[in-house]
Amino acid sequence: MTSLKHICKQAFIKPNNKHFFLKRNIASTTLNENYSNNYDIIIAGGGIVGCSLACTLGKNNKLSNKRILLIESSKNTPFTLPEKYSNRVVSLNPGTKKLLTDIDAWRHIESARFGIVKRLQVTDALSDASICFGEETSSENVSYIIENNLLIYAVKKELERLKNVEVLYEEKIKEYHLPDAAESHVNLHLENGGQYSCDLLIGCDGLNSRVREAMGVQYLNWNYNNVGIVATLKFSEEINNCIAWQRFLPTGPLALLPLTSSMSSLVWATTKEHAQQLLGMSNEQFVDALNEALWKVYQRSNIIDRTLKAFDTLLRASNIPADLHRRYPPKIDSIDGRARFPLGFGHATNYIGKGVALVGDAAHRIHPLAGQGVNLGFGDISCLNKVLSDAIYAGSSLGNVSFLRDYESERQKYNVGMMAVVEGMYRLYRTDFTPIVLLRSLGLQATDVFYPIKKMMVNQASL
Questions:
Q1: What residues does the FAD-binding domain cover (predicted)?
Q2: What is the pLDDT of residues 151-168, one digit of tens each?
Q3: In 45-151, at which residue ranges do the beta strands (DSSP E only) sit?
Q4: Which residue segments constitute the domains of the chain, with CATH numbers given?
């Protein structure tokens, strides 16, 4: 029924008029045969999301006869798995892992290395409130910790096997000409003089997207007075390292993401001033500061402590089970590879236009405190892949706005909701104002003891 609806909407004719679609497909095929620089789909940007999108579309049976071009400005650098772990990692939810499995990229990661999170424990440094998701003994995983460069390598391995996907490296796009009402193709001009055209241009070119700029859409964005510090950590002893710890400090959240039995990846969001101090320290001084941040008992309000104890007593009297198995993070022994990156928020008011769509960071940017940034991008990939399949099945052009609007509607509905939650958490935990600390602590404790709510949160974050 959905396809029938789209056919009618796209053609404005009766559903049984097949000649319209046949003529359209023949015209498209002829154009592709006559002009080698014309593609059905061109993807601008070959990072994690761009490569994964190209691979996903290339392996879509309904798009098997479509020509796809991926344009990336950086070099195609050969990858060899280094002995040291990279300090840039991503946390992939089960939905993203499934997509990578479906395109056969996960097998390359599995044969290399990755960390598993079976339990996520979140604590507030200004109270005893905490919440936990998952269990160490569970067969289900909360997320997977993968190095950025390994993830790109795994996807590129599968890209190399696809005959309908071409990749141009070290090429920069000079300008875009998007179609108006009378045109049906997108035209691209490269800095080297090359010219290309396509039915559908997909912008995967990051937070400073040139494709988004060419679309002329409004972009709501701001930078936080925070930066993220990343590093690879080594513990003083080996442990069953399958827990991700996150502690909300007065200056920002700090997270440890498991890699091996003795190593984790650090993501520490803090103020610019504090970050400058931390990066100016020796490794030994930084380790001391990190251990202090994980264990320090901050000055607390007696009102908060008394209220939380009373709330805990009420829960016990009501026979509501509380999580009595709080874990404590291991002691950090050494670090490697400190670096920093800026933090900010961004969202495009529109993800699509005639013959163009935005995916990943080109459409949205989010604070890393929930580890959902790249997962939102992979959610975009899954949705767009399905929408384009529907368009092909209906005999429509790939750049048809009526189909692309389904992608925009579904993804904005999910992305805006997730971004609002993360933004709310960031603002809720950036203050030490006693009434706010009390409110968030009670909310955290209440959520922790009600399993259905936690399960719903996990399911939503796993999409």
A1: 39-281, 336-414
A2: 999 999 999 999 999 999
A3: 68-72, 89-92, 115-117, 119-124, 130-133, 143-147
A4: 17-461 (3.50.50.60)
